[in-house]
Amino acid sequence: MTEQHPPTTRTVLVTGGNGFLGSSVVRGLAAGGHRVVSADLREPQEPVPGVEHVVCDVTDAAAVRAAFAGRSVEVVVHLASIVTPGKDSSRELERRVDVDGTRHVLDACLASGVRRVVVSSSGAAYGYHPDNPAWLTEDDPVRGNEVFAYSHHKRLVEEMLAELRRTHPELEQVVLRIGTILGETVDNQITALFESTRLLKVRGSDSPFVFIWDTDVVAIIQRAVTGEVTGIFNVAGDGAMTVDEIAAELGKPTLAIPEKLLQAGLWVGRRLGLTAYGPEQTIFLKHRPVLDNTRLKTVLGHTPSRTTREAFASWRAARGI
C-alpha cells in the first residue's frame, strides 16, 4: 500500500484571530494557501481577503461549537486569552476566557475530529520561583503562581492539555511556551517598563528577560500547523538580558529598591487605588522564568532570526529610543 502523506494545505481555525499575534498568524496562514477561519469576539475592522471571519466568544461553549460546525477544521491554533487585563477586568472573567475558554475549544476539537491543536502557552506557566533553574527546559514542571492570574491560568491549561494527551492521544498537540514578544509595533506593560525614566529592579536580583521577535512567533506557529513534529517547546531567542544590561542599552539608570520597601510601596499604592499591583508583584520582578530554546531549534527545527539582545535592539530602533 502506498504511504499517504498529509496535504500541504490545511483548514485552520484560529481563536483570538483579531489580536496582535492572531492577526499576523491569520495573514501568514492565508498567504501560505491555507483555508483560514478566524474566530474572535467581533468582526475585524480590516478583514483579511480569503479568510472567513466568525464571531465567537470562547466563554460560550455553544458559540465555540458553532464556529467549528460544517467547516471540516483540521488544525486549531488557540490564541484566545487575556494577557493584559483591562481596568474593568476581573479574575473571574480572566479564568472564564483563559481556562474555561480553552476547555470549550478542546471539547470542540474532540467532537469535530480535529487532527491537531497548536496552543500558545507562556513561560509564565513555569511560575516565578526562587528555586527555578537558571535555564528552564520543557522537562521542568509547570508551577504557575496562583497569585498571578495569567501564570496560574497557563498552568491550569497545561495541566488540562497533559490530561488530554493521556486520554485522547489522537488529538496531536503543539504547545508553545512563549517568552516576552517584541516587534516593531509592540506596546504593552512590559515595554512600558523600558520606557520609564529609570528601570525598576529589586535590589540583589538580575531579573533577566528572554525576548522573541514577533515574526519568529508567527513562523513557528505556521511550522507547528503544517509540520509533523508535536510536543512542547520554549519559544525565545538565544541568550538573556538582565535589567542592568537593558538599562545600559537604553542609556538609562536603574532604580534598585529593597524588596521590603517595594512591597510596602505597592501595598500603599493599591490601597489608594494608584496601582493594580500589590506586594506579591515583587516575585515577578525577582524570579522571571528564563527559557532554554534548544528543543525549539533541534526538534521543531526553527532557529529564531534574532537573539534576545538583537530582538531588543530591533525594538529599540523601531521605537526610536
Any chance you could write out the topology, listing elements then pairs?
Elements: E1 11-15, H1 20-31, E2 35-40, E3 52-55, H2 61-68, E4 75-78, H3 91-112, E5 116-122, H4 149-167, E6 172-178, E7 180-182, H5 189-194, E8 199-202, E9 211-213, H6 214-226, E10 231-235, H7 243-250, E11 254-257, H8 259-271, H9 281-286, H10 294-300, H11 308-319
Helix pairs in contact: 1-6, 2-3, 3-4
Task: Describe this protein's structure.
It is built from eleven helices and eleven strands. The longest helix has 22 residues. The N terminus is likely disordered. α1 crosses α6, α2 packs parallel to α3 and α3 runs parallel beside α4. Helix content is 39%, strand content 16%. The strands form three sheets. The chain has a seven-stranded parallel beta sheet, with helices on both faces. Strands 7-9 form a two-stranded parallel ribbon. A two-stranded parallel ribbon has the order 8-11. The chain is α/β, with parallel strands linked by helices and 321 residues long. This is SDR family oxidoreductase. Pfam families: Epimerase (PF01370). InterPro entries: Epimerase_deHydtase, Lipid_A_modif_metabolic_enz, NAD(P)-bd_dom_sf. It comes from Nocardioides abyssi.
Characteristic terms for this protein:
11 strands; globular; Lipid_A_modif_metabolic_enz; 11 helices; SDR family oxidoreductase; Epimerase_deHydtase; NAD(P)-bd_dom_sf; 7-stranded parallel β-sheet; 321 residues; two-stranded parallel ribbon; alpha/beta; single chain
